[in-house]
């Protein structure tokens, strides 16, 4: 039976956009521009540590804790370099501000294959579209720079809403903005727990983007699995 869908919501990172290179490579290039040599692998490891610690201490980009998301990220970048042995305050501040700005642009993000075309075709079919992403408030700008913003009626970030996926409240807000009941909505994303399972928990349909060779998740029927974004319309219109 054809699904009676009216609203499609989309995850962004690794669903529509991906980083052009690993975080450690971008950080190492920024360091090199200031005459500082650090291995990309070391920076990648330090970034994961710094990001994890900051996320535990100040969840959701410090929202409600007196931190702006910019300050939150600047602290993560500085701590990443400190963990990799760079301690000079002036250069830390400069690099952190530059990297915060660069991750706001198409310099560091690229559109995944098939994403632009799939979004266009979904809109041509008359679906209403929105974004539901655990991202900070730079997302509008990132989507605009990557020429995807115009596809969406709304862009919901966890920073704006105050709740991060898999919290049901970010999906409930998307349904409210889309003006449809959950059974007429589907969410598309690459994360089993935060995207697929969380959307299903509020009664939405779910599609899980799964590159070839990625493990099978328990309880995801094959008709909910997208080997690529280009498979989406065929599944919806079955």
UniProtKB/TrEMBL annotation:
Family the UniProt entry places it in: Belongs to the HAD-like hydrolase superfamily.
InterPro entries with a match to the protein in the record: HAD-like_hydrolase_domain, HAD-like_sf, HAD-SF_hydro_IA, HAD-SF_hydro_IA_REG-2-like, HAD-SF_hydro_IA_REG-2-like_cap, HAD_sf
Species assigned in the record: Aptenodytes forsteri (Emperor penguin)
NCBIfam families with a match to the protein in the record: DREG-2 (TIGR02252), HAD-SF-IA-v1 (TIGR01549), HAD-SF-IA-v3 (TIGR01509)
Highest taxon listed in the record's lineage: Eukaryota
GO cellular component, one term: nucleus
Keywords, ordered alphabetically: Hydrolase
Protein name: Haloacid dehalogenase-like hydrolase domain-containing protein 3
MF-aspect GO terms: hydrolase activity
Gene3D superfamilies xref list: HAD superfamily/HAD-like (3.40.50.1000), Haloacid dehalogenase-like hydrolase (1.10.150.720)
């Amino acid at each position: 039976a054809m699904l009676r869908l009216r609203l499609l919501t989309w995850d962004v990172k690794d669903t529509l956009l991906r980083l052009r290179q690993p975080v450690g490579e971008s950080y190492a290039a920024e360091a090199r521009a200031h005459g500082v040599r650090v291995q990309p692998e070391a920076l990648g490891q330090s970034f994961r540590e710094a990001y994890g610690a900051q996320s535990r201490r100040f969840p959701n980009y410090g929202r409600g804790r007196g931190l702006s998301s910019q300050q939150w990220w600047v602290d993560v970048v500085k701590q990443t370099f400190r963990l990799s042995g760079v301690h000079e305050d002036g250069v830390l501040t400069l690099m952190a501000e530059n990297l915060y700005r660069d991750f706001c642009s198409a310099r560091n993000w690229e559109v995944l294959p098939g994403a632009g075309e799939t979004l266009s075709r979904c809109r041509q079919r008359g679906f209403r579209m929105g974004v539901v992403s655990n991202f900070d408030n730079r997302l509008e700008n990132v989507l605009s720079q990557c020429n995807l913003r115009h596809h969406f009626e709304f862009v919901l970030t966890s920073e704006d809403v105050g709740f991060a996926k898999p919290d049901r409240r970010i999906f409930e807000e998307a349904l409210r903005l889309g003006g449809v009941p959950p059974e007429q909505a589907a969410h598309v994303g690459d994360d089993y727990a935060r995207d697929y399972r969380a959307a299903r928990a509020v009664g939405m349909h779910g599609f899980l983007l799964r590159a070839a060779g990625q493990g099978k998740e328990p309880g995801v029927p094959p008709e909910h699995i997208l080997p690529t974004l280009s498979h989406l319309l065929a599944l919806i219109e079955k």
